[in-house]
Amino acid sequence: MKYGYFDDHAREYVITRPDTPLPWINYLGSEGFFSLISNTCGGYSFYKDAKLRRITRFRYNDVPQDCGGRCFWICDGDSVWSPAFLPAKTPLDLYKCRHGLGYSVFESSKDKVEAELTVTVPKGCDIELQKLTLRNAGGEKKRLTIYAAAEFCLWNAVDDSTNYQRNWNIGEVEIEGSTVYHKTEYRERRNHYAFYSVNAPIAGYDTDRDTFLGKFNGWGEAAAVRERTSFMSRASGWAPIAALRLEAELGPGEEKTYVFALGYVENEEDKKFSSPGIINKDKAHAMLEAFSTAERFDAAVAELREYWSGLLSRFSIRSGDERLDRMVNIWNQYQCMVTFNMSRSASYYESGTGRGMGFRDSCQDLLGFVHLIPERARERIIDIASIQFEDGSTYHQYQPLTKRGNGDIGSGFNDDPLWLVACTCAYIRETGDFSILEEPTPFNNEAGTETPLIEHLRRSLDFTMTHLGPHGLPLIGRADWNDCLNLNCFSKTPGESFQTCSNFESGKAESVFIAGMFVKYGTEYAELAERLGLGGEAEKLRGAVRDMEAAVLRFGWDGEWFRRAYDAFSRPIGSRENDEGKIFIEPQGFCVMAGIGGAEYGRRALASAEEYLGNEFGLELLSPCYSEYREYLGEISSYPPGYKENGSVFCHNNPWVTLAYCKIKDGEGAWRLYTRSAPAFIEDRSEIHRTEPYCYSQTIAGRMAQNYGEAKNSWLTGTAAWSFAAVSRGILGIRPEYDGLTVDPCIPACIEGFKVSRLFRGTRYEITVRRGNDKGLTVNGTRVEGNTIPMTDAPVCMAELVI
Ligand code: GLC
Ligand code: GLC
Description:
Layout (H helix, E strand, L loop, with lengths): L3 E4 L4 E4 L9 E4 L4 E6 L6 E3 L6 E3 L14 E6 L2 E3 L12 E6 L3 E8 L2 E8 L6 E10 L5 E14 L1 H4 L3 H7 L2 E4 L2 E4 L9 E7 L5 E5 H5 L9 H4 L13 E11 L4 E12 L6 E3 L2 E2 L2 H9 L3 H19 L2 E4 L3 H21 L14 E2 H8 L7 H12 L11 E2 L17 H16 L8 E2 L9 E2 H13 L44 E2 H20 L3 H22 L8 E2 L5 E2 L9 E2 L1 H8 L4 H16 E2 L2 E2 L2 E2 L25 E2 L3 H10 L3 H11 L8 H4 L7 E4 L10 E4 L4 H13 L2 E4 L2 E4 L10 E7 L2 E8 L5 E4 L2 E3 L3 E3 L5 E7 L1
Helix pairs in contact: 7-19, 8-9, 8-10, 9-10, 10-11, 10-12, 12-13, 12-14, 14-15, 14-16, 15-16, 16-17, 16-19, 17-19
Bound molecules: alpha-D-glucopyranose (GLC) (2 copies).
One alpha-D-glucopyranose binds next to helix 8.
């Protein structure tokens, strides 16, 4: 069943009931200020780093779920309701939540009062704006009391939820007119504060949470709201909030609009205070002034829409299948932007406090992002490469505020370095900007160690070549892409990190997956080197790639599929010799994508994957699932069968297989797999899938799980970038190459043809793909050999491919 519908024209998903199976969220902001917002207005905001600069509080694992966030109450006579349903929980006469690109709108009504609440983070300003319009749709005058509240976090989200002996003493606010300023720790080392305000005179306020709520009450039963009053509390320690009260009278047909604002300000050290102890509010005043009217708010939303229209126009299609079009044109690209911004930090599953930016994750996220904002991709590549060590290995993660490598997790994930080659090549093919290779880039962020970026790529490849195991396959280290395949870990201690402990450093465990990566990205680098006139280097690498292919065919092929790894005792993993975990998905995807063994091996590997791993939502990660914990495998065997890395559909790696199908020119296979997990194609199974039907989730429970088909970890997953790569480059076959744009579709019989509009290096390509007898590529009316549209300076280029 469905809980809403796609409005493609508005580029929105419209949720028509508040009781979605899980909170269905959206992301606001794309620069410094970010917010998560659910379909009942829950969520939180932060500035750049969800751990260190948390602006509002959110209690993960709270009951009831998803309370707090943005709280609005409308009191109309005896009734109290919330325009987004929570926190009041009063049944509404109408409820709609429209999640759009960078904004969410809540439309609701109760007893002839209509509300429209739009929440957004405008471009270029560190502020969340909430525009609330109330309209009296009845024949009688209405006297309404309106409350709006936000609960402040004491900045460091981890400390905020652990260090109560200190934190209950430090909360401080200032109140000025209709604005509450949250200034905890500003008296000492912080130079930032937050504020919550409304563009109208308030009738009262509260800033102490427990006073506002009253004893034993949650947000749904706030005492001040029940009594239609404000206690004028001034927070001193405990939990600072901003709760604003407005009184309004609406005649029949009359409406009123308010703009609420939650802002973040940083002041220079010598301008922190305007008088002793009083914070300098100049910047806040200017921000509030900039959005002081509904017109200014509307202009900001219009600008945001324009911005997204511009971004999305870089790649759009018309295929005749509306589900495909909405995935490609809107939601998949939107999710690519979100994963680029957030990496794996803040979602309803990622607390924003644990992982920073992952090396491999961020590199892969770029594969779905380079075409959107190439300049930001360039900057990101340099940031990522700057945490690499001189020997080519790298920190696994870095913190976005400091950009420094994260020492807690350290290094030793031996797939990491190769992903740098993947994203850099993708960036250059997209932009033609070879100059990035000359960009001076440090090792481990140490000044003085800068070398041209290309040297980092070299060392990445060298690292693989110099870390081979007994079968000539790459050593796996802590883990490869599969973070849970910890072959040197041998952990017995509860709570010990599977990713960082190594109780038996075998120096032997090898990864067939990394071998596949090396063949693919080593070949890409060799092509690049040839273009740069580095023939000798290219030749050497091609030699290493050939050796690796030979090693895979000799030791990595199991007869019907590719093996996964060799363990610490050099026993195969992912082989028919194993009692469980006989076949894994990752090497089938990567080795076939890399062309190892050609189409013949490819066909057999993919047929085996489908036979043993296929379910109705995609391909499971492995089969049969591990039924018990095995020390020599690590975390993968810690999960109950069917969950996460132990045999769920781990959505991230399914598009590798889609691309592998394209590699062997099997359009039906590619389409079958793509449509099994693409959210818009399974929207009508939302009660089983449960996560948002407009974005990918990381994992869908496999057949062995009790809750087969249930998805988890929506939004922040490499699935977004790889799915976009699979559908755009594989199925639709629109591939940026160094010398032009290639059109090489691999579509199923059910798609007749399609049109693509693609902005590529300043030229707009309008491409038509259709079936017919006059096969071949025509560019601006002229027949062209092959499948690549040559580069042009013209602003527009028309091309037609007949297949
Ligand atoms: C998570 C991690 C990613 C890893 C994957 C498979 O998504 O973020 O780095 O590759 O799990 O274990
Ligand atoms: C767990 C998860 C995996 C994730 C890792 C991050 O192992 O199963 O998906 O990548 O944690 O450290």
